């Protein structure tokens, strides 16, 4: 069983988190500065290989009422491109899944604020923290389904 990688895909950055070997906790890995969907998906693919991940969890930014937004469509397109790249690089076994991320940025901001970080400090790592929340929520849900 491989690790899981969580992604918070935004217009400017992609927050990245990876599970530990036992799939119990999520740790922030990095924030990717977006340069273009081709290079961005290649960088994610390299992280999947580096951390030997068997599952990619992408935060799905739905509107509060559960409907799609403009950002939702952009993230769906990112997933399509990533899945195509996984298939063409003999990594079709890697599962790609969604996790509702409606409140992850709010939760991430709150955690960082409670840690005493300034607004500027929070701004630099909020996407990575949001990826941690997305991945941790996904893993907790999987564990609850199994028990």
From TrEMBL:
UniProt keyword annotations, A-Z: Cytoplasm, Hydrolase, Nuclease, Ribosome biogenesis
GO molecular-function term, one example from the UniProt record: hydrolase activity, acting on ester bonds
Gene Ontology biological-process entries: rRNA 5'-end processing
SMART domains attached to this UniProt entry: YqgFc (SM00732)
Predominant location category: cytoplasm
Nuclease keyword on record: yes
Keyword Cytoplasm: yes
Functional note: Could be a nuclease involved in processing of the 5'-end of pre-16S rRNA.
NCBIfam families attached to this UniProt entry: RNAse_H_YqgF
Family named by the database record: Belongs to the YqgF HJR family.
Protein name: Putative pre-16S rRNA nuclease
Species name: Baileyella intestinalis
Taxonomic lineage of the native organism: Bacteria, Bacillati, Bacillota, Clostridia, Peptostreptococcales
Encoding gene per record: ruvX
């Amino acid at each position: 069983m491989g690790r899981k990688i969580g992604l918070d895909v935004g217009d400017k950055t992609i927050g990245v988190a990876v599970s530990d070997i036992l799939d119990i906790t999520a740790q922030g890995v990095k924030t990717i500065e977006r340069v273009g969907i081709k290079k961005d998906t290649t960088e994610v693919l390299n992280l999947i290989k580096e951390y030997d991940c068997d599952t990619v969890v992408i935060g799905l930014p739905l509107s509060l009422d559960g409907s799609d937004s403009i950002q939702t469509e952009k993230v769906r397109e990112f997933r399509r491109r990533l899945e195509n790249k996984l298939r063409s690089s003999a990594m079709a076994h890697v599962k790609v899944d969604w996790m509702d991320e409606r409140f992850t940025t709010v939760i991430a901001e709150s955690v960082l604020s409670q840690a005493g970080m300034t607004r500027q400090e929070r701004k630099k790592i909020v996407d990575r923290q949001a990826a941690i929340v997305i991945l941790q929520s996904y893993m907790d849900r999987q564990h609850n389904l199994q028990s």
